[in-house]
Design goal:
The complex is a heterotrimer of chains A (290), B (258) and C (340). Chain A has eleven helices and two strands, in the order H-H-H-H-E-E-H-H-H-H-H-H-H. With 290 residues, chain A is mostly helical. Chain B has nine helices and ten strands. The chains are: A mainly alpha (290), B alpha/beta (258), C mainly alpha (340).
Chain lengths: 290, 258, 340
């Protein structure tokens, strides 16, 4: 069992990176608009299926990895604009109900289009093997996933801390009215922010499709750990989402190794402990770039 | 009760938001039976300081003592039970309820009726009714008692909020900018009520205001904040003569009139 | 609107339902579907108390509901308890779930309360899902309906008999619910929804009120779950899932948030509608999703709430407790909700 510890820890980190990136998207949307996006998982699944179809049509995986999330973003912008935005000034649970309804419809639509049972979506041959790092073998595709997710997180951090627009976005999270007074177009801000969240979800959806399989509910399966991640990291903190995601990933992979039946429950235990010690989550007060 | 008549004492209160110190090492003493004004230009940290005193948000550093007890980290509702009452800059009321119901909620809460499954009857009901009448009479809202608060003018909402804050029998009333956004006639009404709080009810008042003229005519003691720091503290005459205050308020021309 | 008129209208509804087993065949409905309406209405009430009256986005009530169902099923399977005991055990299981989760949920308000409810509610789902040896895992557990035993007499509970059990519990629940929301305690909950900081600045510990509201809600949801499980002789993980919580919230909004009888109306639409749609199409999930979307966009006040707003409602139904649209203060969504 101990010999599995290293690989399983690595798996935990990969899983954690997924949770982190999904949680980041959720946090972005939640922080600015107060919307818990229950359809977040659907956007992941959508991007996954789109990439699957693209690869079937001989579009290289690398392109699918970019294009599929972009199409998901396009759908996201339309949905945000027409259905979700009118709810921002209403009570937050209405947008929760709305996105919940959308996710139900999306799930059924995926079933109708791509079949109820899921589809085999394997990584391209170039990424299929394993790389040896001397002491341990790592599947190449998982290393690729970690690298892509790290780049995405780094790019997001740079965008939020180094660009004018990113700084405005962060300021808007603190005080939407102030930004309106400064003349920043809040409508554009909402759209860009939502798109960022969906784009991250899309990338995660494509990569997770290749690693964990693709089915009408596969995105939703990542949603609950992502909620737990947001809570553990501290609601409102983007940095917290990253740390929280890694913690949840490691907790799940370790319990899967030692007590498989408790693999999901472990993250709730972790969440309860964190909340008992820090009621606002690990970085709930002030995040590094939130 | 604290000796030498100090009802509320704040020492070295500090609170920062995102690296900016909204309140920086501010201290103040409110003596029993006084009308004490906290004044300063916009962004001086008055409301932040007020929130620390009333337990809406805890300060990062400093100490708040009320009736001789350290209340720095005491939850807000317990401070009310100890005898604090507070109003907010934007009246914090139940707009859909009538004036009567608003005040009644407070009176019932204080009479320990709020947690029950049965409405009070008989003597208990009479006691609540009597107290509601008394409070509405004090702020002169008897005529409007059955109207939803949302329909009333801003000034009347303020008065109702003051009546609500009195419903818990406080000894110290904290009023956050009670005159903000009011027309002159309404301002005079509020000024009258604040005077009455001391004269008729024997209460201590700490209020926030940015209009120096109002403050000089109403307060026994004035504390001036500027950009989060304590600028001056003294009697109205001392404040009017204070050079630092004069320069902070320069251009407003207010002090020349007194 | 007199108390007398309200009583008469309420009695009329109960009498109408008393003839349910004879009316339902006329509408081509199985009597157990109507039992389902009455049972689910109790769970919808539990959401109504938290969301409609207190303003807390209760998106985790399926946890207590499912605990009720599993509590009843497990006790029947492993301890061979009888009908009445199974109901009591299921209800207590819901209450215990509330006791465990309330201390965590209490700390936050607004969407954060919603997020915590969803996340914590799901823990029981995974336990039922994974603990296959005991709970049957994903397949759930089929448990035959236990006998009703009183002293030495015992009887099987037919679907016909179950209907009246469900009706009796529904009537008790409605009376209890109405008593609670019209009491000083209930008025304080409504005040918390409208302006929690003010309630705290009236010297009340709002956490204590919310704690009790959570316990009442979890007990009601537990009762509903126990009855629901016994009705279909089945306990399964999806009863604990957050989707189920969402269906309760939808039903509550459909019926009318913050109205006593809205829960019954909402449960009626949800249960009957689901039954009809799922028999005519396999795409029922699309319809259900569309119902969510349409409800939010066009019908946020729900049926009784809308009737009430039009001023046409007999007031026993569109009762005066809450204006559903004004029910939730968006500013209370964040953490400023209560100060510290």
């Amino acid at each position: 069992m101990i010999e599995h510890l290293g690989p399983q820890l690595f798996n935990g980190l990969v899983l954690g990176a997924f949770y982190a990136i999904v949680a980041l998207g959720l946090s972005l949307i939640m922080n600015l608009t107060g919307t818990i996006n229950m359809a977040h998982g659907s956007f992941m699944t959508l991007a996954g299926y789109l990439a699957y179809t693209m690869v079937l049509r001989k579009i290289p995986f690398g392109w699918a990895l970019i294009l599929a999330p972009l199409i998901a973003v396009l759908v996201g912008i339309i949905v945000e604009r027409t259905l979700v935005r009118p709810l921002y000034k209403r009570e937050p649970f209405y947008s929760l109900l709305m996105t919940f309804g959308l996710s139900l419809m999306a799930e059924e639509a995926f079933r109708l289009i791509w079949g109820p049972n899921g589809v085999p979506f394997s990584p391209p041959p170039a990424l299929a093997g394993a790389a040896s790092l001397g002491f341990m073998q790592f599947p190449t595709f998982r290393i690729f996933i970690v690298v892509v997710l790290l780049i995405a997180i780094a790019a997001l951090a740079l965008f939020l801390t180094r660009t004018r627009f990113g700084l405005r976005l962060r300021a808007a999270v603190q005080d939407t009215e102030m930004i309106a007074a400064l003349g920043t177009n809040t409508q554009v801000l909402y759209a860009v922010n939502f798109s960022l969240g969906i784009f991250l979800a899309g990338i995660a959806g494509v990569l997770a499709g290749g690693m964990l399989g693709l089915s009408p509910t596969s995105g939703n399966n990542l949603l609950m750990p992502a909620f737990v991640t947001v809570i553990i990291g501290g609601m409102g903190s983007l940095f917290g989402s990253i740390i929280g995601g890694l913690l949840v990933g490691i907790a799940i992979s370790m319990t899967t190794l030692f007590i498989p039946a408790a693999s999901e429950v472990s993250m709730y235990v972790l969440m309860a402990i964190v909340l008992l010690v820090r009621p606002r989550g690990l970085f709930g007060e002030e995040g590094i770039f939130g | 009760m604290a000796s030498d008549g100090v009802l509320l004492e704040a020492t070295g209160i500090t609170k920062a938001f995102g690296g900016v110190r909204a309140v920086d090492d501010v201290s103040l003493q409110v003596r029993e039976g006084t009308i004490h004004a906290l004044i300063g230009p916009n962004g001086a940290g008055k409301t932040t300081f007020f929130n620390a005193i009333s337990g809406f948000a805890f300060p990062e550093r400093g100490r708040v003592t009320f009736r001789g007890t350290d209340v720095t980290r005491l939850v807000n509702w317990r401070r009310i039970a100890m005898g604090m009452g507070r109003t907010f800059q934007t009246p914090s009321i139940f707009p859909e309820l009538t004036v009567d119901e608003n005040v009644r909620l407070g009176v019932s809460a204080h009479a320990k009726q709020a947690f029950r499954l049965r409405a009070p009857r008989g003597e208990a009901k009479a006691a609540v009714d009597g107290r509601v009448d008394e409070l509405l009479g004090f702020v002169n809202l008897i005529a409007q008692r059955d109207r939803p608060l949302a329909e009333l003018a801003h000034g009347s909402q303020r008065l109702c909020e003051i009546a609500m804050s009195l419903s818990t029998d406080p000894v110290l009333v904290l009023l956050d900018e009670p005159m903000a956004g009011l027309a002159e006639a309404e301002t005079d009404r509020i000024i009258g009520v604040i005077r009455d709080l001391r004269v008729r009810l024997g209460l201590t008042v700490l209020f926030v205001e940015h209009n120096m003229r109002v403050v000089l005519s109403l307060a026994d003691r004035i504390t001036v904040l500027d950009r989060g720091k304590l600028l001056a503290d003294g009697t109205p005459a001392e404040i009017a003569a204070n050079e630092a205050v004069r320069s902070a308020y320069l251009g407003e021309g207010v002090l020349d009139h007194v | 609107m007199t108390a007398r008129k309200e009583l008469l209208l309420s009695a009329a509804v109960v009498v109408l339902f008393a003839f349910g087993p004879w009316i339902s065949p006329l509408m081509h409905l199985d009597v157990s579907i109507v039992s389902g309406v009455l049972v689910i209405a109790i769970a919808v009430m539990s959401v109504n108390l938290l969301l409609g009256y207190t303003g807390l986005p209760a998106f985790g009530n399926a946890a207590y509901f499912g605990l009720g169902s599993y509590g009843a099923a497990l006790s029947v399977k492993y301890f061979q308890v009888h009908f009445a005991e199974a109901i009591v055990i299921g209800t207590v299981a819901g209450l215990l779930g509330g006791l465990i989760l309330a201390p965590f949920l209490l700390r936050r308000r607004g969407i954060y309360f919603g997020l915590l409810s969803i996340a914590f509610g799901q823990v029981f789902y995974f336990i039922a899902y994974r603990y296959t040896d005991v709970t049957g895992g994903e397949d759930g557990m089929q448990v035959p309906r236990p006998l009703f035993v009183l002293a030495n007499a015992h009887a099987t509970v037919s679907d016909f008999g179950f209907y009246y059990v469900a009706l009796a519990f529904f009537v008790i629940a409605v009376i209890a619910f109405r008593t609670i929301v019209r009491s000083p305690f209930g008025r304080t909950l409504i005040a918390i929804r409208q302006n929690e900081p003010r309630v705290r600045y009236l010297g009340l510990n709002t956490d204590r009120f919310i704690f009790v509201a959570l316990l009442i809600a979890s007990t009601m949801a537990g009762l509903s779950g126990a009855l629901s499980g016994l009705l279909i002789n089945f306990a399964f993980p999806l009863q604990l899932d957050w989707h189920q919580s969402g269906y309760f919230v939808l039903s509550m909004i459909l019926g009318g948030a913050g109205t006593v009888w809205g829960s019954l109306v909402g449960a009626f639409i949800y249960v009957i509608g689901n039954d009809i749609i799922s028999t005519i199409t396999s795409w029922w999930q699309i319809f259900l999703g569309a119902l969510f979307v349409a409800c939010v966009l066009f019908f946020p006040r729900g049926i009784l709430g809308t009737l009430q707003a039009l001023g046409r409602a007999p007031q026993a139904f569109g009762d005066d407790d809450v204006d559903a649209n004004a029910a939730f203060d968006p500013n209370a969504a964040g953490e400023a909700g209560r100060g510290v």
